[in-house]
Amino acid sequence: MINGMQTEGVIGKYAIAGAVGATFYLEPSATADIEIFVMLPAPPGSSLLSLAPIYKYLAARGCRMEGERIVVGDWPVQFLAPRNALEQEALAEAPETDIEGARTWVLTAEHLVAIALQTGRAKDHARIVQFFEENAVNTDKLKRVLMKHGPTPKWESFARKYLEE
Amino acid sequence: MELDRRKRLASLPFSEKIRILEKLRDRSRTIAASGLRKEAVRQQMRKVQVGRNPPGPLHTADWTPRGAEGQGGR
Predict the structure, then answer these.
(1) CATH number reported for the structural domain that contains residue A47 in this entry
(2) Tens-digit pLDDT string for chain A (165 aa)
(3) In chain A, which residues have their Cβ closer than 8 Å to the Cβ of B18?
(4) Residues of B in contact with A97 (CB under 8 A)
(5) pTM exceeds cut of 0.90
(6) Contacts of A32 in chain B (CB under 8 A)
(7) CA of B48, closest CA in chain A: separation in Å?
(8) What interface predicted TM-score (ipTM) does this complex get?
(9) How far is CA A23 from CA A130, A160, A165, B14, B26, in A?
C-alpha cells in the first residue's frame, strides 16, 4: 500500500527507520510500530509540507488512525518528514531492499546510529550498543556522518560511557 | 553464546525477521490485553507508595536494610 502511494505520487522516496529499520541489521527486537521517513512533494504554489495527503490516501483505503499513527495492515505506522540535514541525508542515501518481493528502502546502519544518538532515549542508546556489539556499523562512515551533522560531542560522551572497555 | 545467538538471528533474511517482529508484537498485544502487565504495574506502584511513607528508615514494602529493623520512624 505504501509503494502504491509512492507510485501515485503522494509521497516520494521513503525509508524504514527506528526499531524495524534496525532489525534489518540486527536481531529482531519487540516494537509496537513502524517509523517511516518520507519525502513529501510540496503542493503546487506552496512550500509547506503536510502529511495530510498520506492520511487521506490511506484512510480512503480503510486504514484507521491510532493516535499519531495510522494502522496499515496490522502495523501502526508513524510517517515522519525529515526534520534536519541528518535525516534528509539518511533518507536520500537509504539503500533499496525487498520484503517478500516488494521493493522497499531502509536507512543505513550508520544513519540509524546517528539518529538514535540524536534522539538520545535509553532505548536508542541500547540499540547503538547492539550495533557495535554485532559489528553492524562501519565506524569510519559513522564518524563522517557525525562530523558532518554535528552530534559529535554527544557521540564522544556516549562512546566514553558505553563503548570503552 | 548469547552474542552468537543474536548474530545468528541478525543474519536471517529481512522478510523472516519481519515475521518474528510480528509474532513479538502480537505476543506483546496479548499480554497487554490480558491485564497481566497492568497488574504488575499496580503492584509496583503499591510498593513505591509504601516506600514513600516508610514506617522506619529506608523501609520498602518487602525490604528493610540489615540493622534497621524495629527502628520505627516518628
Answers:
(1) 3.30.460
(2) 899 999 999 999 999 999 999 999 999 999 999 999 999 987 777 667 788 999 999 999 999 999 889 999 999 999 999 999 999 999 999 999 988 889 999 999 999 999 999 998 999 999 999 999 999 999 999 999 998 997 678 888 888 887 775
(3) 20, 23, 28, 99
(4) 14
(5) no
(6) 25, 28
(7) 22
(8) 0.82
(9) 11, 25, 25, 8, 17
Cell numbers of A95, please?
A: 539503500
Q: Which of A25, A31, A75 sits opposite B10 (nearest CB)?
A: A25
- How far, in Å, are B40, B50, B54, B60, B65 from residue B47 at the CA level? 11, 5, 11, 7, 16
Q: How many domains does chain A have?
A: 1
Q: Looking at CA atoms only, how far is residue B20 from chain A in angstroms?
A: 7
B36 interfaces chain A, CB cutoff of 8 Å: no
Q: Which of residues 112-131 of A touch B (CB under 8 A)?
A: 130
Other CB atoms within a 10 A radius of the CB of residue A54 amount to: 22
Say if residues A73 and A4 touch (Cβ distance below 8 Å).
no
Decide: A48 and A42 in contact? Cβ < 8 Å.
yes
The burial class, CB within 10 Å (0-12 / 13-18 / 19+), for A130 is: buried
Rounded to an integer, what distance in angstroms lies between the CA atom of residue A100 and that of residue A32? 21
**CA distances from residue A43 to A9, A37, A130 in whole angstroms, order as listed:** 11, 18, 40
pLDDT at site B52: 63
Binary contact (A31, B17; C-beta < 8 A): no
Which of A20, A74, A134 is nearest residue B6 as measured by Cβ atoms?
A: A134
Contact between B18 and A29 using a beta-carbon 8 Å cutoff: no
